[in-house]
Amino acid sequence: MRKFLIALSLLAAPLSLQAQEQIASAPAGLLRALDKTSGHTVDLEVTTGQAVSLGTLSIRMSDCRYPAGNPAGNAYAALQISEQGNENPIFSGWMIASAPALNALEHQRYDVWVMRCTTS
């Protein structure tokens, strides 16, 4: 039992350090979208609080965060994605650049994921 507790504490130490990491919010973010029908990808620069259109989708980013001092680091963005003719959002939540499948948009035509935050 003691070995288990020691191993558990060693595993938890890096997690507590990560929890203390400072984050910063960026004024914009870069998203990448894939049109599954045509196979084309497009990069979308989205300003925080603004919406961009992609076909029948409207993508609004409310925040883009990154590790302070490292804008190229692991970004995560709060997105709300709506589709024309549908009053409820088809996606609302955080997307993480390093784990796009963790909380993904499920749409028959488009994939959207976060690439990075932009600071200028």
Query: What structural class results from the helix and strand content?
Result: alpha+beta
Compute the number of helices.
1
In N-to-C order, the SSE pattern is: HEEEEEEEE
Number of strands: 8
**What share of the residues lie within helices?**
10-25%
Output the radius of gyration.
Answer: 17 Å
Strand-residue proportion:
over 45%
Signal peptide: 1-19
Organism: Sulfitobacter aestuarii
Keywords: Signal
Protein name: DUF2155 domain-containing protein
Describe it.
The structure is a single chain. By secondary structure, this protein is of the alpha+beta class. The protein has one domain (22-118). Helices cover 16% and strands 48% of the residues. The chain has one helix spanning 2-20, and strands at residues 23-26, 28-35, 41-47, 51-54, 57-67, 76-83, 91-96, 110-118. The chain starts with a helix and ends with a strand.
Characteristics:
120 residues, alpha+beta, 1 helix, disordered N terminus, signal
List strands and helices in order, with pairings.
Layout: H1 2-20, E1 23-26, E2 28-35, E3 41-47, E4 51-54, E5 57-67, E6 76-83, E7 91-96, E8 110-118
Antiparallel strand pairs: 1-5, 2-3, 2-8, 4-5, 5-6, 6-7
Structure summary:
Residues 1-19 form the signal peptide. This protein is α+β, with helices and mostly antiparallel strands.
